[in-house]
Specification:
The longest helix is centred in the C-terminal third of the chain and has 23 residues, at 370-392. The chain has helices at 2-12, 19-39, 68-78, 101-113, 124-140, 155-169, 190-198, 219-231, 254-264, 282-287, 301-304, 319-326, 330-335, 357-368, 370-392, 421-437, 465-482, and strands at residues 46-47, 83-84, 91-92, 148-152, 180-184, 205-208, 235-242, 267-272, 296-299, 312-316, 397-399, 407-412, 442-448, 451-457. The chain has a seven-stranded mixed sheet, sandwiched between helices. A five-stranded mixed sheet has the order 3-13-14-12-11. Strands 1-2 form a two-stranded antiparallel sheet. The chain starts with a helix and ends with a helix. By secondary structure, the chain is of the alpha/beta class. The chain has 17 helices and 14 strands. It is globular, with a radius of gyration of 25 Å. Helix 15 packs parallel to helix 17 (465-482). It binds pyridoxal-5'-phosphate (PLP). Pyridoxal-5'-phosphate binds at residues 95, 154-156, 189, 191, 242, 246, 271, 273-274, 300, 312. The site of pyridoxal-5'-phosphate (PLP) has 13 residues, from helix 6.
């Protein structure tokens, strides 16, 4: 037995590389990431190739150790050579992600030290760090000190947490779900709908409130619907507004909706996954006025704070409601000191064990200072206006509404054209493909009132005026080629 133990120990110990080995490994990874970042400005932004076969079919998990340089080469060949180069300056489609370096270092630190931040007692000050971050974000939205929150994997899980909190905070019983009414709009992100389904609320009544020509919820329509539902004996339960829609980046009239929610005592949820963090800069803060009236709010630091994927956040104005909905073992609950804000992530989320997500957020904010993020967000707002202005100078460009935030919609309609809607749609679809096939930028599209519309979202921290000018240049050239 002792011999076998020794044998197994010798193998197990390989999981702990020596200082020298770590130096070699770190150097290889650093060299690789440095090369990756150096080649980024010229790398193809988008490779439209989902492949005919799965390359991993020929690359099974190995019984024997493989060398890091070999594996990095495989990663390069098999993973990085297709799809969207999501951290590139040219990513102007969907909602661009981030990938700031400081956050990668924070994750490295979190993973090596691997503190257990599920429960307060296991890492008191790891949890305090996260709760300080949550309180800091809550203060940006003028939430009171009684607010709580959770750093989630993204906006979707944050939405689920908010919906569960809303559900549990009402007197609503499962048998009444088919009488509960949720108020939303067609412009809402499907993540909220998915959250309702996952929270067991599939059967609730969904009222799609009409929007104005800027695709914003019309408050009066909302109130009329609420009143008529109440009259019918239904149970108005939740209003979902969006602070920056994915389609056009528009902000619903947050303040007017908030007043209606308060008047009728309906849970007010705001999805700010794309737009909420613009509140960090003055202009964004003004535009998001009324966001403080919400009962729950979703923001996505992996969008609006340029962090790598895996960082979302939910904020709930009344900590007690969030705790009541999620805590599971009563004994832990008694230990929570809400005054000190020392609740555990496990008490306000679906998770128990979890990554120490707060560390990358903290390191990034502290290393660069909040002012750097404010400036970067202000720059994005200004870039969208610049892009909009420049587009208006191009003959044949039909512009969508002036951007509330950093998403611009537009399409090309030849002057004095005889083309029908369907043909103009086809033309713009072609234009979209032509722009993306250039490889320097990636834009996406949407359909607005039956019109195929081009859509550019400026949110990558690497996108500056230079890239917007590149897109304008490509657009002009491709229009010429098409006509
Ligand atoms: C991205 C987004 C979501 C979903 O968030 P994930 O982080 O992708 O889970 C929800 N709502 C809006 C408005 C979004 O932009």
């Amino acid at each position: 037995m002792l011999k076998k133990l020794q044998e197994l120990e010798n193998i197990s110990r390989k999981l702990e590389p020596s200082f020298k080995q770590r130096q070699v490994l770190n150097k290889e990874i650093t060299n690789y990431t440095n090369d990756f970042l150096a080649s980024m400005p010229d790398a193809k932004m988008y490779v439209d190739d989902t492949g005919t076969e799965n390359p991993f079919d020929n690359f099974p998990i190995s019984e024997k150790p493989l060398a890091l340089d070999f594996l990095l080469k495989k990663f390069d060949d098999l993973v990085l050579n297709s799809g969207i180069n999501a951290s590139s300056q040219g990513h102007l489609g969907y909602v661009p992600g981030g990938g700031i370096y400081a956050a990668a270092l924070g994750d490295y630190l979190a993973n090596v030290s691997n503190r257990y931040t599920g429960m307060f007692f296991a890492s008191p000050s790891g949890v305090r760090m996260e709760n300080q971050l949550i309180a800091w974000f809550a203060s940006i939205f003028d939430y009171p000190k009684t607010a709580a929150g959770n750093i989630t994997s993204g906006g979707s899980v944050a939405s689920l947490t908010a919906v569960i909190t809303a559900r549990e905070s009402t007197e609503l019983k499962a048998k009444d779900f088919d009488k509960a009414v949720v108020y939303l709009s067609e412009e809402m992100h499907h993540a909220s709908l998915k959250a309702l389904h996952l929270a067991g609320l599939k059967e609730c009544i969904k009222r799609y409130i009409p929007c104005d020509q800027n695709r914003k919820i019309i408050p009066q329509e909302l109130e009329n619907q609420l009143l008529s539902d109440k009259k019918e004996g239904l149970k108005p339960f939740m209003i979902i507004a969006t602070a920056g829609t994915t389609n056009c980046g528009t902000i619903d009239p947050l303040e007017a909706i908030g007043k209606i929610a308060q008047k009728h005592r309906v849970w007010y949820h705001i999805d700010g996954a794309y737009g909420g963090l613009f509140a960090l800069c003055e202009e964004g803060k003004q535009k998001l006025k009324g966001i403080e009236l919400s009962d729950s709010l979703v923001i996505d630091p992996h969008k609006g704070l340029f962090l790598p994927f895996g960082t979302g956040m939910v904020l709930v104005k009344d900590a007690k409601k969030m705790l009541a909905a999620h805590h599971f073992t009563g004994t832990y609950f008694q230990d929570i000191d809400l005054e000190k804000g020392e609740y555990s992530p496990a008490d306000v989320s679906v998770e128990l064990s979890r990554p120490f997500r707060g560390l990358k957020l903290w390191l990034a904010l502290q290393l660069h200072g909040a002012e750097t993020f404010r400036a970067c967000l202000e720059e994005k707002l200004l870039l969208a206006k610049y892009f909009y202005d420049e587009l208006s100078k191009i003959e044949g460009i039909e512009l969508g509404t002036f951007p509330d935030l950093s998403i611009v919609t537009y399409r090309y309609v030849p002057k004095n054209t005889q083309l029908k809607l369907k043909e103009i749609n086809k033309l713009n679809e072609k234009l979209n493909q032509a722009i993306n096939s250039d490889g320097r930028v990636f834009i996406s599209s949407t359909e607005l009132n039956g019109k195929f519309t081009l859509r550019s979202a400026i949110l990558s921290f690497r996108t500056h005026k230079e890239t917007v000018d590149v897109l304008l240049g490509i657009l002009k050239a491709k229009i010429k080629e098409l006509i």
